[in-house]
Design a protein that fits this description.
Elements (H helix, E strand, L loop, with lengths): L1 H51 L7 H29 L8 H25 L2
Helix pairs in contact: 1-2, 1-3, 2-3
């Protein structure tokens, strides 16, 4: 009888740890996407300041860069929305992890390409 109780305690603690890990993973994904959007908007602000100071000339290169940064922000917000919608539908973070990985890669990729393109063409 005592062995059964110990097994139940172990199973309960494993389930409790899984729930805590799921909550933490969900929060981390959401915060990471929020940081990508924030970083992209900060780079947009820096580019606008450089344009206003006439350090860089406004042209197609700037529009392409701003478009990529805007796309990064949009994808990050869509990712956050997807997390919220999935949780409301009762899905856990592990079932949507593949799409979140793609969303994170696209958002960070747009940010990286925009920064690289701006550096290569405008400066």
């Amino acid at each position: 009888m005592e062995a059964v109780k110990e097994e139940n305690i172990e199973v309960d603690s494993v389930n409790e740890n899984k729930e805590k890990n799921q909550t933490l993973t969900t929060e981390l994904h959401f915060e990471l996407l929020k940081q990508y959007a924030w970083l992209s908007s900060a780079v947009i602000g820096a580019i606008i300041v450089l344009v206003q100071l006439k350090a860089v000339e406004m042209g197609n290169n700037i529009y392409i860069t701003l478009g990529l940064l805007g796309l990064s922000i949009f994808v990050s917000i869509v990712g956050q929305d997807h997390i919220v919608d999935s949780l409301l539908k009762g899905k856990d973070i592990y079932r949507i992890s593949k799409i979140l990985k793609l969303i994170r890669a696209v958002s960070m990729g747009c940010l990286g390409v925009a920064a690289g393109y701006f550096t290569a063409t405008a400066l």
